[in-house]
Amino acid sequence: xxxxLVLFMPSGKRGRFPAGxxxxxxxxxxxxxxxxxxxxxxxxxxxxxxxxxxxxxKHGITSAADHLSPVGPKEQRYAxxxxxxxxxxxxCSATVEGDVVIDIxxxxxxxxxxxxxxxxxRVFERxxxxxxxxxEVEEPDMHKPLGDLDRLKDAIERDWGFSNILVDQHLxxxxxxxxxxxxxxxxxxxxxxxxxxxxxxxxxxxxLHNEAYGLACDIGSTTIALHLVSLLSGRVIASAxxxxxxxxFGEDLxxxxxxxxxxxxxxxxxxxxxxxxxxxxxGDVCGETGVHRNDILDAVFVGNPIMHxxxxxxxxxxxxxxxxxxxxxxxxxxxxxxxxxxxxxxxRVYMIPCIAGHVGADAAAATLAEGPHRQDEMxxxxxxxxxxxIVLGNSExxxxxxxxxxxxxxxxxxxxGQRAAPGAIERVRIDPETLEPRFKIIGTELWSNEEGFARxxxxxxxxxxxxxxxxxxxxxxxxxxxxxxxxxxxxxxxxRSPRITATGRTFSYVLHDGDPLITVTQNxxxxxxxxxxxxxAGIKLLMDKLGIDHVDRIRFAGAFGSxxxxxxxxxxxxxxxxxxxxxxxxxxxxxxxxxxALVNRDYRRxxxxxxxxxxxxxxxxxxxxxxxxxxxxALPNKIxxxxxxxxxxxxxxxxxxxxxxxxxDGAGRRRGGGRRxxxxx
Amino acid sequence: xxxxLVLFMPSGKRGRFPAGxxxxxxxxxxxxxxxxxxxxxxxxxxxxxxxxxxxxxKHGITSAADHLSPVGPKEQRYAxxxxxxxxxxxxCSATVEGDVVIDIxxxxxxxxxxxxxxxxxRVFERxxxxxxxxxEVEEPDMHKPLGDLDRLKDAIERDWGFSNILVDQHLxxxxxxxxxxxxxxxxxxxxxxxxxxxxxxxxxxxxLHNEAYGLACDIGSTTIALHLVSLLSGRVIASAxxxxxxxxFGEDLxxxxxxxxxxxxxxxxxxxxxxxxxxxxxGDVCGETGVHRNDILDAVFVGNPIMHxxxxxxxxxxxxxxxxxxxxxxxxxxxxxxxxxxxxxxxRVYMIPCIAGHVGADAAAATLAEGPHRQDEMxxxxxxxxxxxIVLGNSExxxxxxxxxxxxxxxxxxxxGQRAAPGAIERVRIDPETLEPRFKIIGTELWSNEEGFARxxxxxxxxxxxxxxxxxxxxxxxxxxxxxxxxxxxxxxxxRSPRITATGRTFSYVLHDGDPLITVTQNxxxxxxxxxxxxxAGIKLLMDKLGIDHVDRIRFAGAFGSxxxxxxxxxxxxxxxxxxxxxxxxxxxxxxxxxxALVNRDYRRxxxxxxxxxxxxxxxxxxxxxxxxxxxxALPNKIxxxxxxxxxxxxxxxxxxxxxxxxxDGAGRRRGGGRRxxxxx
Lengths: 681, 681
Known about the structure:
- Two copies of one chain form a homodimer.
- Chain A is of the alpha/beta class.
- Among the domains of chain A are: 5-103, Beta-grasp domain (Ubiquitin-like (UB roll)); 130-206, Ubiquitin-like (UB roll) (Roll), CATH 3.10.20; 213-351, Nucleotidyltransferase, domain 5, CATH 3.30.420.480; 408-526, no CATH class.
- A six-stranded mixed β-sheet of chain A has the order 14-13-12-15-17-16, sandwiched between helices.
- Chain A is elongated.
- Chain A starts with a strand and ends with a helix.
- Mean pLDDT of chain A is 89; it is low at 109-119 and 660-681.
- At the A-B interface, helix 3, strand 9, helix 4 and strand 16 of A face helix 3, strand 9, helix 4 and strand 16 of B.
- Chains A, B: Pfam families: Fer2, RACo_C_ter, RACo_linker, Raco_middle.
């Protein structure tokens, strides 16, 4: 008779094992990651599994709870002392006795701390670089005078299979005391970054220590977002965000590089500022959850190249001019202490690789999260900022570039533009008949034409237009026929509506006739055209490279993408034509990618390999950029059709009112200015 | 026709290579280590070799200078700019054109610093853990936006074969500047401790950097000895020694452990003291030679277990009592900076493993240097101190133990004993007829009965008896019949000589009738008997373990061994019978072992494996120790014959005068006192 068949879900891995094999052992042999801190002694409770009972015809398995061994004394003891939910088994104790389907519950969470709902609740298969290993160590013996640390290493090798272990310096003076405190039972934290890497002993506690945490952090130019993650469950325990304090040295990236170039102490000051901000966030998430800083054992950081470099203490000056040379593009391994973070002394830091001088570790992390390289459909991943980072591809081939959009999308360079803050207009609709607008501001859910809006708005006032508002108002102006295909405000409409007003030789649209007066000027429209043309031209270069004329899916990463309506982005021609249902915002995908690399070290190898394979396009060096740019100045585009958009939205007839030449000039000026200047107003 | 045959000396490795193969390449393929910093560009001059011309019938080779290619332009250029001695070739440029015998000169020393004659001029085959690698790095390219560091790593892998390189943190902020200073040519220092280990980039210089140094240091309880070694030639450049400043916390090891136990800050103070002393010595050797601290890239430290632990910042309290548990016995990898040494920021530290709680890394290093495990003859290696460290064995099997000799051999516990210092009696002869002595003191080469001695001695006075003096005087008293086989001073001789005087119930021998009066009392003889019996009993236990009744060679390591006359040591029965020609002092063998591990990382693996294989005997646990001890109280021994000694020295007839029981009691007291106490007076 054949050995029992065991199928693990959700991985689907399966194999036959002799009756009596512990479920944990079967999982290990199949490469299914089941956490266990105590090494099968039935005391940590981390290895819980559930039987899925029933007929699994597809697999030829009839599974039942009693196809595992009856609950034994170890499990009984654990269930009495702790809280073992009905149906849960300890896989170290339960043995295989018949065909069975085993579910690895991804939510196993012992001694649960306060769990805050995180923005993204995706849970990933765990294979962390840091593992807790409970061991019982032989006592010293004069006949075998091996050192305490050496016997500890032997025990770890015997029970956990880690050989040739390196030991962190800070542990040497502590080992003897901890072993004696724990009466020769201790929990060791072993860091092993890759399957072939050398393991390191990084932390040690007396007795059973059942808590291990990690940090996933995205250092943005504007915002730093940090997640505290349980390495034992993979769950986000708390998240926190803060403004990047480097803003006081310069609003955008290039002004911070300039600050470093002009101030000898500038680099150090900015490095210290960002490290302190991250450390403060660690304090926040620890304070909120009661997690000890000392239990933080691993961390993954991502950021754009300049943030990446400044965080590591590297002068970013080289990134300020051609050839935009990164000091380091590959993955970086460091220590929390080396980066001035108060964590466990042995805490490791991993930084995801950067793709290119303007396509950072954040873009790489977003790529890891969204996985264009893991699927056959052609995916476009865009992170819009002062420089847009663009990744395009599928499982066969991935290309990437950055494009100098400038700060218009963030409300800068716009006459009534402002940061997204209460009082800022974020949604706009224009009646094509009357040309009358209605809008929403941040701070109330009411439209401006709804009852109670005026009262609701008194709290904040109506103060300007934020990034998503500017996209919508320009798109709605286009859909309402106020601006032409080539982006010119139609002055002839002044006869139909008082909202069209002359400003010197050009015309503006009055969005809110209050104090302050909020208008969209011809220059504002031009600024948006230049920004969106730069983005689209970059995307087109990548499409050229792959020889494709359409994409299957579009993902907006980052804060900007979370607030804009994909439809309006497409109406303006920021992005190529695509089925609207397949266009979505994915929030802080970079942070998600960092979490993935934190909870599963295989993702580190995946993104390292992907980044190596990604073909990098330097837009500034591509002759066709200019042509694409000029065509993209038109709304949505002078050349490219938008058939799927046209199915969803009634696009106006093409009309041109002249001025495209101006746009072309603007583009020429912008390109000629070089990268260091292009981010400046 | 067969390819040319190439034989490398002194290794004797040989192989056939196609004509045109560079000699350096042939050496690499055969595993012959030839240094090269510039990677075959003919600029560093480190890869020099010589042709041995002539008939080598045994190897079937007729070798001649012109069996290498003629001197090419690279060598010509080097010879003109630098100093290439006649007959020397650059093995990167010279190619094999016919059968040839190649000598790797071990003295290759470019840009030679001042070379001080070291105590030990042995030169070892080099294979250092740190290697200098000159590389030319691709300039940044917008089309291939790999980071500067990543291109550097690629270049190192391409030219030097190191893959998957880790990078020291401190280099991240420096890489870009150094690459640009060197105009994309740099010298990288790569640390790789083992053939399978992961290489690390630890230092980087612009252009060609042709200097790399290491430290080999033996931290003794009394003295710290440090060698500065060129990693590129393997030669000792300078040596320095200093008293261990921990002496102010306690004269011997156990009183230092007591100090730690009684003073909360004691451990830190002693760690700081020894680290500062080492750092000061580094300053001394650098100052003397003009070597920059920044060029020190590797270091090997050895010491007894308590020094080893204190240097690493580990509390040695556990070593003060049974079971004498070492915190760490295996090899330790650390960094210079972590140990408060001012060296290159990337400087690595390696500590040779300890054998047991009382047999330290110093004994392991001495084992490495003398190599009992590398030969078939049975070698006894003894390092006499407060605890004697004893290693015995051959290529088949090695055993080790420590034995509690106490401080008598160092002149303590002796009524007229003193440290070895000017004025101390160090050599003694006694006329067996007249019982009149003559002696030498430290500070003059004259014997006390020679003309001019009195004048020479006025500078220092005649102040006492040092360790080697006490060995000689007791041995000479035995040879002259003044003391019996069982160590009793023969009072009946008082009738023959006024030098035999009564002191209460026992008798003394007047060695110097001056001020101070220097006598050897019955208690002094007893103290020496106890010490030597402990040493001999330890040796006998190891001989029992191996089932042998004699040894082929005896090596005394350490300062004590350097000053005593092996003949007298054997007359007293400190050591077993052995041909006198095969007994020798080997000086600071521990320091030599440290140097070996520094210049050739294979020696690290060798001693790690040897230490693992050494069988450790805890003398306190062996029932037969007491029997051996009692027998060894006799001179030279109650049971064991000394036939080879008898061939060289006329031993007196055995006579006993009683008192052996006393000796037995003394031994019993000593053993019962436990290890912590046995080192105290």
